[in-house]
Amino acid sequence: xxxxxxxxxxxxxxxxxxxxxxxxxxxxxxxxxxxxxxxxxxxxxxxxxxxxxxxxxxxxxxxxxxxxxxxxxxxxxxxxxxxxxxxxxxxxxxxxxxxxxxxxxxxxxxxxxxxxxxxxxxxxxxx
Length: 127
Description:
This protein is mainly alpha-helical. The chain has one domain (13-125). The protein contains five helices and no strands.
């Protein structure tokens, strides 16, 4: 059984919007964000969706006392790939400073986090 962090955060849309306003200084000059080159608004919505999905998958995994090894491995990968987004949420909830490098890591990892969360979701649907 893998150890889970029992802290879940649900940052408001204004909090995530601030994340991407601040990250504006590190994005390319054309004002596009993330791997898909989305607008700031599109990317903010996308990251909110990703955070909610991975948070939901983490909750579901915590409810499975003896998950199969494939599911456990997929969950561990999701936790690793979603770490920047979760770190951001935790720091924001604790009202700690959030540096530009963390904002940039969130931007760079959003798609991988989404893919990993979707994989866990698919595996959970077939358990």
